[in-house]
Amino acid sequence: MWRDNRNTVNSGGCRITQHDMAEDLHNAPQAKATLRVMATTGVAVSRTVSRLEVGLTLLPPVLWVSLSLLLLLLPSGSFELPGDAACPLAGDSLMLSPLIAAGQIHLAQEKSRVRCLPGADLESYSGFISVDKPECGSNLFFWFFPAQERPKDAPLVLWLNGGPGRSSMYGAMFEHGPYQLTNPVSDSVVRRNVTWVKSFSMLYVDNPVGAGFSHTNSCYSRTLNESTASLYSFLQQFMLLFPQYSKNDFYIGGQVGQINLELNKENVQLLVTLLNDLLSGKYVPALGYYIHHQMDSNDKPRMRLKGIFVGSGYCDPEKMLTQLPETLYTIGVYTDFDRRRHIQRVMDGWSSPDHNPYHSTDSPFSTLLEYYLSMDHTFKAFSYYDQRLDSSQEVSRDPALKAFLNKASVKNALHAGGNVFIFEPPFNHYATLEAIQGVRSEMAFLMDHYKVLHYTGNMDIIINVRMTEAFLMATPWSGQADYNNSQRYPWGYNGRLAGFYTQVRNFTRVIIRNAGHDAPADQPEWTLDMMQRFIDDKPF
């Protein structure tokens, strides 16, 4: 609703001038938007005008009445709103797939434009795209930011946070999106000084259904193939929605999420599911592999996949699990006895004739967590996401994000309507995912055909440098021998040591200094520099 505020006529930051009103009245037969005006008489008038995005001058009350009378004389019938000239009404979710299927691309783009989020002054788009069978009611939520520099030809980057239940809005708001939260009680955002949106068009997707704003009636993804197929369907429609980006270089990447569950006997099974699924690093290589093999089909539009990147990825449990106790021993948490007992428990878990590697309740992590419980006093003392921090210094950002995105005004601005933002994984729905399945073969294929980046914070414990190296050195790609005999080199940024890197053919391995599990948040400038070098093929 329009209201008088400091001599302006506005709604959710959308304002209009007298000149625009006159021009729109002149072009009324071609108008395509609905304007709701509350005149000074208190009478609401709804008629059509087309331009709703520009400057402001409050008309005198007498002209408001005249305008109301003129609007009443316009041809009857209102038109769909091409964009958010006015903020969406509470409870309205923006479902874009019907418009995409009908070829109403411009209308869909305009509807998805984010205009009414306080502090959000950059071009962005959000909404839902339907995946899976119609009866499933499955919809993936996205928030898309075109690049600030060279948007017409800047690379398009799909960002995925974690595995089931970890919303990619975390990456948008706390890692490298253009906005950040300073006060979760407020419904506004502020600009982030260092953002990947400067150089890349960033697409943040809540994946799979059930995570963040993404939702379904009952068709939760229970296998890696199911979630990958849903993501591919989403991308096909997104490329139709924004065809101008379908010809740009395309990258897929993500950073696994943090687990914020206390380690205790009651939570053992939940932690088993989380550790096996959330800390996966599986979705990025699985999707890249899937896209490559769809290129031989008639699916259109085609995607110009150029590469993938993974941060702290739990890609190969079989190779990685035995290296965790080695790291704990190296940093002084374990004695040699602890290290040997831990490794033996992992080996026993894999070699047991009763072991089912595709079921989380029978994973080696189950016995490991029971062992961790016996060392409860040790593991509660420090952060296993950043060895520099003790447990009292570790602060979860999840509650702030959840509180902010569940505010009605924020949900309306992002076209999420009445959907509830869910940050915790719906454990019962994902319990049958292939918990211990690795993606070594998919990663090997991608390393032979695309640019690949794998980065780790050197202060991370839960998915540490040694664990990742064990996986990479066992990955059977054509450059395996060269990588296994390669050297590290220092990487600097603005006169400081940012980390170390190794490059073999199209594969880049980066260790980020003074960073924990969440490297983009810990070292935003360095990780942006890393991404720019990787994507732009610049030397480190």
UniProtKB/TrEMBL annotation:
Q: Which UniProt keywords apply?
A: Carboxypeptidase, Glycoprotein, Hydrolase, Membrane, Protease, Signal, Transmembrane, Transmembrane helix
Does the keyword field hold Zinc-finger? no
- From its record, what is one biological process in GO terms? proteolysis
Superkingdom as given in the UniProt entry:
Eukaryota
Q: Which GO terms describe its molecular function?
A: serine-type carboxypeptidase activity
Q: Could you say which protein family the record assigns here?
A: Belongs to the peptidase S10 family.
Annotated transmembrane regions: 54-74
Could you identify this protein by its name? Carboxypeptidase
Q: Which Pfam families match?
A: Peptidase_S10 (PF00450)
